[in-house]
Amino acid sequence: MVRYLITRLGQALVVVVIVTVIAFLILHLLPGGAARATLGKEATLEQLAAFNHEMGYDRPWIQQYGMYVQRLLHGDLGYSYQLNQTVVEAISQRLPKTMVLSLLSTLLAIVLAIPLGVIQAVRRNRWPDYAITSLSLLAYATPIFFMGLMMIILFSQVWPILPPEAPQGFTVAEVLADPAGLVLPTVTLAIVTIAVYSRYVRSAMVDNLNENYVRTARSKGLSERRVVLRHTLRNGLFPIIALLGMYLPALFSGALVVESLFNFPGMGQLFWQAALKRDFPILLGVTVIISIATVLGALVADLLYAAVDPRVRLRRSTT
Amino acid sequence: MSTLSPTVRPGAAPDQPADEAEAPVRGLWRQGLAVFCENRLALVGLGLFVLLAGICFLGPLFYHTDQVHTDLTAVHLAPGQQGHPLGTDGVGYDQLGRLMLGGQTSIIVGLAAGILATAVGTLWGAVAGFVGGWVDAAMMRVVDAMMSIPSLFLFMLLAAIVTPSVPMLILIIGAFAWLGPARLVRGEALTLRSREYVQAMRAMGGTGGRAVRRHIVPNAIGTVTVNATFQVADAILYVAYLSFLGLGVPPPAANWGGMLSDGLADTYSGHWWLLYPPGIAIILIVLAFNFIGDGLRDAFEVRLRRR
Question: pLDDT tens, A94-144?
C-alpha cells in the first residue's frame, strides 16, 4: 500500500507541474502577452514594456516560469483589474459555493444511479433495462443548458413550484438558506451524472453477477435479493469510487454551464463572466485552481479505491 | 490463442490455408457489416444522420432563403406566416433556412474536430504504447495533466484568446479532445504488442512495420472507429456549449448551438419555434452518432469474438 501511495502521489505531483506549465504557456500565447491582457488594447508600447519589465516578463522563459511557480506557491495568482480584487480573493469567495453545488448533485446522482443500475443489471435486456438505457442516452444527448431550460419551463412556468434562479447569497450559509432555489440547478447538473453513473453500476453489476462467488452464494440457497444486495452490490460499488474521481472534470464543466444558466454565484459563473470580459488573470487562476482540485479529487478517489479493494493496489504495484 | 493452433498441430488442415487466408479478411468486414445491419438502432442512427445531413447540405439547393441580409419588417413571424414554414427569428432570418445553415456548421465542425482528435490521439497513443519506457510515461503524464483541466474551461480560455471562426473551433476542440483516444490506443497497443501471434510473427523474422500494418492497426481500428463516432457527438455538444457561453461563431454564420442559445432569450415571449427546432436537431444528431457508435462496437466486437 505504501508503495502504491508513493507512486500515485508522485504521479499527481508531476501532473500538477505539467498543468502549471500549460497554464504558463497559455499566458504567453496571449496576443501581446499578459501585459496586453492586463493593460488593454489602448496601452502604448512604452507602457507594455514598462509593465513587462516590472513583472519580469522580459527575462528568459525558464526564469519566468520559476517566478510564476514561486508566486503560485505563495498563493499569488495575480490581480484582476476588472474586478478590482486579487484572483485568490475572487476564487475563495466562489469556490465553496461551486463545491456545494457539485457535492449536492453528486450525492443525488449516487443515490439515484445505484438503484437504477442495479435494476438494469438484474433485469438486463428486458424492458426496465431498455427504458433506463434510452433515458440515459437521451439525457446524454441533450445539451445541459437545454435540459435546464426545460426544467425552468416545467417547474417554474407551467407548474410554478420552484424559482428559476439559483440562490444569490454571498456566503455558503446564505446559499444553503434558500433550498428551493438550489433544487433546479442541482437536479439539472445531476441528470447527466446519473446517466453516466448508472451505466457504470450496470456493467459492474453484470460483470460481478457472472462471477463464481455469486454462483456459490446462489447454490448455498441464499435468496436472490440477498445475493444481489449483500454480495454483488458490495463488489459492484468499488469501481464507482474510482469513477467519482474520473468524472470530476466533466462535473466541473457541467457546473460551468449550469451556473451560467441559473445565475449561480459560483466559480463557473466567475469564469464565464471573465471569459466574456477577457479577464485573463481570473481565467488562468480559475483554470489552475480547478485543475488542481481535479487532480486532488482523483487522487483521493484512487487512494480510497485502493484502500477498499486490495486487488487494485496489488495489480498496479506489480506493473 | 486459437490463431496459433494450426501451426502447432501440423497437418491438421492441409487443404484449408488457401481459402482461409483470403476469406477472413473480406469475410470479417462483411460479417461486421451484417452485424451492424442487424442492429436496428444503428441503422436508425445512420438513417438519422443521412437525413439530417441531407436536409442541411442539399436542402438550400431547393429551399432558397436569404441568410445574409436582415429583414426587420418580418421579425418573429410565427410558423406558416408569409411563406415561412418555421417562422422567422428576431432579425427576420427564415428559421428553416437558418436551421439548414446552422446544421452545416454543426456537422462540419463535429466531424472535422472528431476526426482531428481521433487522428492526433491515435498517433500519440500508438507512439507511447510502442516505444514504452520513460517516453510512454512522459507522454501519458501529459495526457493526465491535460485531462485534469476540465475541457470546457480550456475551450473557453482559448476561445477568449482567439476569435472563434469555424476552422478555429475545429482546431480548439480537436486539439484538446484527443486525450481519450490517446489513452485508448495506447492501451490497445500495449496489449496487442504482447499478443502471442504478434510475438510469433516477430520471432519468425517479421519487422516492426509488419506488426503495425498487419496486426496492430487492423486490430485497433475497431476501437478507434467506435471512439471516433462518440468524439463527433461530443464535439457537436462542445460547439453548442461554447455558443451558449457566448464564444461561438459570430453572426451571420450560424450553428445549432448558437441558435438554441439565442432561442433561450425567447423562452418567456412564446417564440417556441426559435427554441425547440434547434434543440431537437442537436439531440437527434448526437443520438444518431451514439447509435452508430454502439452499432459499430457490436460489429467489431463480434468480428473479434468469432475468430
Answer: 888 899 899 999 999 999 998 898 888 888 888 888 888 888 888 888 899
**Residues of chain B that touch chain A, judged by Cβ-Cβ distance less than 8 Å:** 141-142, 144-154, 156-161, 233, 237, 240-241, 244-247, 257, 260-261, 264, 267-268, 275, 279, 282-283, 286-287, 290
A residues 256-295 lying closer than 8 A (beta carbon) to B? 256-257, 260-261, 271-272, 275-276, 278, 280, 283-284, 286-287, 290-291, 294-295
Identify which of A145, A253, A287 has the shortest CB distance to residue B157.
A287
B52-to-A226, A294, B131 alpha-carbon distances in Å: 49, 38, 42
Query: Closest Cα partner for B186 from B233, B135, B110, B229?
Result: B135
Least confident range of A69-73, A231-235, A265-269, B247-251: B247-251
The pTM for the full model equals 0.83
Do the beta carbons of residue A56 and residue A67 sit within 8 Å? yes
CB atoms within 10 A of CB B297: 20
- Is there a contact between B177 and B111 (Cβ–Cβ < 8 Å)? no
pLDDT per residue as tens digits for the range B252-294: 778 888 888 888 877 777 777 788 888 899 999 999 998 888 8
CA angle B46, B49, B54 (to 5 degrees): 125
* pLDDT at residue B306 is higher than 50: no
Q: Please report, for residues B64, B66, B107, B252, the alpha-carbon distance to residue B96 in angstroms, rounded to integers and kept in the order given.
A: 10, 11, 16, 15
Q: What is the DSSP string of B249-300?
A: PPTTS--HHHHHHHHHTTGGGT-GGGTHHHHHHHHHHHHHHHHHHHHHHHHH
- Give the CA-trace dihedral at A8, A11, A13, A15, to 10 degrees: -140
Q: How close are the terminal C-alpha atoms of chain A, in Å?
A: 14
Report the C-alpha gap between B17 and B23 in whole angstroms. 10
B10 vs B116: CA distance, rounded Å: 46
| Best residue in A16, A125, A253, A284 for a mutation probing chain B (most B CBs within 10 Å) | A253
Q: What is the mean pLDDT of residues A45-68?
A: 78
Chain A residue numbers with beta carbons less than 8 Å from the beta carbon of B233 are 141
Measured between alpha carbons, how far is residue A28 from residues A22, A190, B66 in Å? Answer: 10, 37, 42
The ipTM estimated for the assembled molecules is 0.84
Helix A179-209, helix A248-262: angle, nearest 10: 150
Amino acid type, B110: G
Length of chain B: 307
Q: What are phi and psi of A85, to 5 degrees?
A: -150, 165
Contact A230, A290 (CB under 8 A): no
